[in-house]
Amino acid sequence: MAEGRLSPAEQERLAILTAAIEGTITNGQAAKQLRLSVRQVQRAKVAIKRDGSAAVVHKLKGKQSNHHIDQSTKEKALKAIKEQYADFKPAFATEKLQDTHGIAISSQTTRRWMTEAGLWKIRGREKATYRSWRPRKEYFGELEQFDGSYHLWFEKRFVDKDGTPIEVCLLAAIDDATGIITKAQFAANEGVVAVFTFWQAYIQETGKPLSIYLDKFSTYKINHKAAVDNHELMTQFQRAMGSLSILLITAHSPEAKGRVERLFGTLQDRLCKEMRLTNITTPEDGNRFLTEVFLPKFNKQFAVVPAKEGDIHRKLLAEEERQVSHIFSIHETRRINLDFTIQFKNQWYQLTEIQPTTVRPLLRVTVETWPDQTIHIILKGHELQYILLPKKPKKQRIKQPVILTTHTLNYKPPQNHPWRTRFKPASEG
To answer: Do 92 and 35 lie in a common domain?
Structure first.
């Protein structure tokens, strides 16, 4: 082999060994320079005398690697990627090739092949703003990161009557210590009712976490076309969580709750495509797929071991269990009118005469809208009885009771009541 075809390292190795052969340096000096043993130098000198400069070239140079993947496997993999996984990321496509097609290759190989085929473009990283790293919490249940993401989760398979694809909101909670998606659910929006339904089910199934980390609801979410009551969500949510002794922590930037933000990026890639492959077309089917198929597999693959073993979710107390419908309802304040009516959202409610507590005009009551949309009027912990009026009551000049209480007012005793018997002096007896 001509010296001109040797690499610089090979040329240097040849020069040192040649000097040792010629006697200008000792075998020990050559061994030191080449970081070899003296015995290895002696064997290399013999090889050079026998084979010349070819002795310093690795025997596999220019030959195919023992780990070379044959062309037919590459063609089969690329065919599957182009037909089914063209918009998949390399790592996800690699998993599908192995699970579905039995092609076991590395994600780096998939990335290289997809890049060569024009299916993947290598992007440089943007310069990020410096933010300090926050270590994970120690226990499962110590902190849940919660958020919602509006997206075309069902792509073009879930449409309105005009055929326009519908964005739905995926609500998700991820445990900070383990990275487990503790609950995920598709909803029409990220409003009070949807969030309350999510967390009522979470707490009844899993227990109360010590704290929940969520953002302060960005302008985009509040103004999203699907949003219905986001403006009051934080107030209602803080009240509900406070009554259950769950600490609410609000993040002031998406990066602050990075784990759930990264989760949605991963789900928009993986979940959308998994549902496409199984032809999931509605949020109802999507929720079943999440619970039964996707979440168990995802958590098994991506969960981490927490710093300390144990689950510190807390069970609902007996009183909290009884009050759970009151807690997870929308609370609004109204004043009782002089005629004992209450106006609420263009409806009029007439309080009945018999009530579990004393009721006076102008008192403030709490009107609760439960998840099932029933109305409950609460005063001093008591639920007041009412009838729904068909229309606004007319003002009438009739005598109204001063208060409503547990019995009727202006009591009239019966004829045989002692008050109605004529008083007889003792002398008449």
So the answer is: no
